[in-house]
Amino acid sequence: MKHEAPVESALGQLERPSLLAAWLDLTKSRIASMVVLSAFVGALLACSPHLDWSRAALAALYVGMVAASSAIFNHVLERDTDRLMLRTRNRPLVTGQVRVRDALIGACVLGTAGTVGLALGYNLLSALLALSTLVAYALVYTPFKRVSTLNTIVGAVPGAMPPLIAAIAIAGRATHWGWSLFALLFCWQFPHFMAIAWLHREDYARAGMKMLPAMAGNEGVAGRQALIYGLTLLPISLLPTLHGDAGLVYAIAALVLGGVYVGAAWRFSLLEDRARARLLLFTSILYLPLMYAAVFLDPMVLRTFH
Fold this sequence. Notes:
Elements: H1 4-15, H2 19-26, H3 29-46, H4 53-77, H5 79-82, H6 92-95, H7 100-121, H8 124-144, H9 151-160, H10 162-171, H11 176-199, H12 201-207, H13 221-237, H14 239-242, H15 248-270, H16 274-297, H17 299-303
């Protein structure tokens, strides 16, 4: 009986996430990794005709650092509402594992390093766009979630910026591929987020978040929105082929992957339930990396590099 308290204490320490895991949570590392991947693709395509892997990777890293900074600011600003939601009540700032002051310092360091890196290593335009994206996400989108259901559209703009910023960093201007990937990401986010918002609609309602699926009388809206944007994504994904930047291989892949995505959204629009929402979410997660792979499997794209 004398050893029960120490044993329970030890078990509690083992169960508690490490400090590294806490900071990865604060930076929303899974989202940040997709940001870096999207930026890397945008940067690589802007390198044409001379492929420069290291320069593209560094630009993507800087964009990812700014995204991680905005994620931390988001955690800081939403720590009160995070306490009210089941999916966020164990976040590091809520549990006290990371202090707010330390989180703010980390966010400032990452944001500054990313924007300065882009300004000094690439060009001022990409740095200013990255900084404006951070401000838009942290100071506009984040508080707007408590004000209007239009927050999803507002948040989709900074969410779609990484490949465009990276392309501008490399080329010094907005390229066809940069704009095409921006439009692709913008439309892709809506079915993806509608699935998430529907799955956690009770949490959002509890926290007072103005998400479409969480609002009274909005049954069926998430499914319809997912389908509309899924259908819009199909022609948007073909823009590189229409511009002459990609060929038949890419076009076929875009149609097949887009068709699968639309199919999952259509099933969800017919009946909003957990299984179909999870299927749509899973499909959305697979869609982007497969689309990026299709870009570099296209012979026309590969011929643009010497």
